[in-house]
């Protein structure tokens, strides 16, 4: 018998990356209407750390982990991804819209009366929810080769409280009907985009439906994303997408036809991160000047954010031809998820040096916490510690964005957009289901060697019994466990591991006391 192949050269998650994935699992596994470690700074789901933002960014984080790191383990991601999709349809996530849809003088200073408002969270406006949800659904279809959400009524928003209303209200959609709705809203608005809150057009929120259109195009063979991006770019070329400092407009007030630039930090990075999917040349060209004043080096050589007030003064100095004086503003109150936005952007544009410094700062100053095998950074509302170090941490950054940054790769969103998986990928051997509390650290199929390399470990170091279902495994095979023969398709085996064929699937059951390598070698290419 040939010796077991060496699989150490195949990619594997490190402890931090695996910890972020497990933390998402832990949060999503909570019972409905339990939101431990997800509470927002503001009641009413109105702020940028609301459930909808956390859930969608957690889904995209899982998407990166699967697409870039563990492509042969859909079974490790699909169940939790679909649970996030289900939770996005819970009323606690979207019921804010009924009152928000009526409008606000804060968002429209010329308002003299509120609108009637409506309950359906995706029928009109509210792109901050519908666009992200659409992108999540589209990503699911690409990652798992699935049209399960494109059936009539596959998406359902059910409003049925005990003591409100005149009866149950249900709003049903499919992926395609949601896409049609968003397309025509964008067209009706002259391709500038769809508003979030009434009268508030955010550039970043309109990048998400573009992702959704692209992923749906892959299923249908259409080119809607190409049409939308061309029209969107033409519209903003006329208006201008940048202010005088070379920053992306954050917010456009539609009725007043003018921009607003909230001084919150991270806005450039948040827009650039998502815009990079389809406008990479622009993003990479602007990024160095945009990031230069938004970050600063700490005395210990790490990277953190400059206060937005100080960053603005530095930009003004550069625009006037003066060398900026880098000052601190310890009176600034951090509120936005700027740290997470910047980390995510650095990962996407490939600014690896600054990203290492920023993540190093998070690990040194922002209280990294491990719980049930999961890694997160708990909420901290204080802006600075007693030494002037920024210590603010929001739920979106701590639960999702730092994991998103660690699991992305340079141009990772761009690669997913432009080089998605093809039919050949889905014909390869892969782990389609996992039963038991195991973390998948490696899952890679080598086409040239007809070899499936897997590395698993029990969650939080607790002994587990695990069953794997491996699809597309019809060819004769030999299985090694930690470089030692374990079983083969001829019926030979070793104690403690059971392997059986079910159709074209191979089902493997084994105890998992510690980190374990499994190497499945096929005699011919499946």
UniProtKB/TrEMBL annotation:
InterPro entries: Ldi (IPR041411). Residues 52-382 form the Linalool dehydratase/isomerase domain. It comes from the Bacteria. This is Linalool dehydratase/isomerase domain-containing protein. It comes from Amycolatopsis dendrobii.
């Amino acid at each position: 018998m040939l010796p077991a192949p060496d699989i150490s050269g195949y990619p594997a998650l490190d402890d931090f990356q695996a910890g972020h994935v497990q933390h998402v699992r832990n949060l999503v596994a909570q019972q409905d209407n339990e939101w431990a470690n997800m509470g927002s700074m503001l009641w009413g789901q109105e702020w940028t750390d609301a459930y909808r933002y956390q859930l969608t960014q957690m889904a995209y984080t899982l998407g990166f982990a699967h697409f870039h790191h563990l492509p042969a383990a859909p079974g490790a991601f699909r169940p939790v991804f679909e649970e996030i999709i289900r939770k996005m349809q819970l009323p606690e996530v979207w019921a804010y819209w009924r009152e928000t849809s009526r409008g606000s003088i804060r968002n429209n200073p010329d308002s003299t009366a509120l609108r009637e408002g409506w309950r359906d969270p995706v029928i009109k406006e509210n792109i901050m929810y519908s666009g992200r949800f659409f992108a999540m659904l589209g990503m699911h279809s690409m990652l798992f080769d699935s049209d399960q959400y494109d059936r009539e009524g596959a998406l359902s928003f059910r409003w049925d409280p005990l003591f409100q209303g005149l009866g149950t209200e249900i709003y049903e959609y499919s992926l395609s009907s949601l896409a049609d709705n968003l397309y025509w809203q964008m067209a009706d608005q002259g391709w500038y985009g769809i508003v979030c809150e009434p009268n508030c057009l955010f550039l970043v929120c309109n990048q998400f439906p573009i992702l959704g259109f692209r992923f749906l195009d892959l299923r249908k063979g259409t080119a809607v994303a190409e049409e939308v991006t061309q029209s969107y770019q033409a519209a903003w070329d006329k208006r201008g997408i940048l202010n005088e400092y070379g920053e992306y407009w954050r917010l456009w007030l539609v009725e007043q036809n003018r921009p607003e630039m909230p001084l919150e930090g991270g806005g450039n990075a948040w827009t650039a991160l998502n815009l990079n999917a389809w406008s990479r040349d622009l993003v990479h060209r602007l990024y160095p000047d945009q990031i230069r004043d938004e970050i600063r080096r700490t005395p210990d050589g790490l990277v953190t954010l400059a206060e937005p007030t100080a960053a603005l003064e530095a930009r003004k100095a550069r625009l006037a031809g003066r060398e900026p004086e880098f000052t601190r503003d310890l009176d600034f109150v951090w509120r936005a998820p700027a740290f997470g936005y910047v980390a995510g952007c650095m990962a996407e544009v490939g600014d690896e040096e600054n990203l290492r410094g920023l993540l190093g700062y998070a690990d040194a100053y922002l209280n990294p916490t491990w719980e049930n095998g999961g890694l997160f950074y708990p909420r901290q509302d204080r802006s600075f510690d007693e030494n002037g170090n920024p210590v603010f941490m929001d739920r979106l950054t701590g639960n999702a964005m730092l994991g998103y940054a660690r699991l992305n790769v340079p141009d990772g969103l761009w690669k997913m957009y432009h080089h998605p998986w093809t039919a050949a990928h889905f014909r390869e051997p892969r782990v389609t289901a996992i039963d038991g509390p195991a973390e998948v650290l490696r899952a890679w199929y080598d086409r040239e060697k007809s070899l499936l390399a897997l590395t698993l470990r029990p969650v939080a170091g607790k002994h587990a019994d695990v069953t794997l279902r491996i699809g597309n495994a019809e060819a004769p095979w030999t299985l090694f466990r930690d470089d030692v023969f374990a079983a083969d398709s001829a019926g030979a085996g070793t104690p403690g591991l059971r392997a059986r064929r079910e159709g074209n699937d191979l089902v493997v059951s084994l105890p998992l006391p510690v980190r374990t390598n499994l190497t499945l070698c096929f005699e011919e290419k499946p």
